[in-house]
Amino acid sequence: LINHMSEAVAAAQKSKKIAKAGPGRQVRLWVRAKFLSFRRSKVAQNTNQTILRLEGVNDRTAASYYFGKRVAYIYKTHSGKAENRFRTIWGRISRSHGNSGAVLARFATNLPARAIGSTLRVMLFPQRG
């Protein structure tokens, strides 16, 4: 898990998603995730449950670090003023999906179908003990 975290920090530094906290200290705020699909069966589709692929996560044990973390889907609206042009749909990672590091996230509001394939943000706070 520690090796995974150092790889994730290196990936985050490359993507410049790091905020300064104090003199010379860097803190990761979020990790990118791809929206792969809704959770579904042969007949039915649960549109408030999504399957996500986290950046730099390749196995089930590394995915367990992210259980309970919050997920944000940020999208741009066509209506509204400039200060509230962006909206967010929040969810939470509940469990892993398969053995390759994919996770299942549940959202309070359904994600739109156009969000499939888009990037979501997985917040790295709050930490579990």
Summarize the structure.
By secondary structure, this protein is mainly beta.
Number of domains: 1
- In percent, how helical is the residue content? 10-25%
At CATH level 3, the topology is Thrombin, subunit H
Low-confidence stretches: none
Number of H/I helices: 2
Q: In CATH's first tier, which class applies?
A: Mainly Beta
CATH architectural designation: Beta Barrel
Key words describing this protein structure:
single chain; 129 residues; six-stranded antiparallel barrel; two-stranded antiparallel ribbon; 2 helices
What this model shows, in words?
The two termini are 15 Å apart. With 129 residues, this protein is mostly beta strands. It contains 2 helices and 8 strands, in the order αββββαββββ. The chain has helices spanning 2-14, 60-63, and strands spanning 18-20, 26-28, 30-40, 45-54, 70-76, 86-97, 102-107, 119-123. Strand 6 and strand 7 form a beta hairpin. It has one domain (29-123): Beta Barrel (Thrombin, subunit H). A 6-stranded antiparallel β-barrel has the order 3-4-7-6-5-8. A two-stranded antiparallel ribbon has the order 1-2. One of its GO terms (biological process) is translation. This is 60S ribosomal protein L35a. Keywords: Ribonucleoprotein, Ribosomal protein.
Would you spell out the secondary-structure blueprint of this structure?
Elements: H1 2-14, E1 18-20, E2 26-28, E3 30-40, E4 45-54, H2 60-63, E5 70-76, E6 86-97, E7 102-107, E8 119-123
Antiparallel strand pairs: 1-2, 3-4, 3-8, 4-7, 5-6, 5-8, 6-7
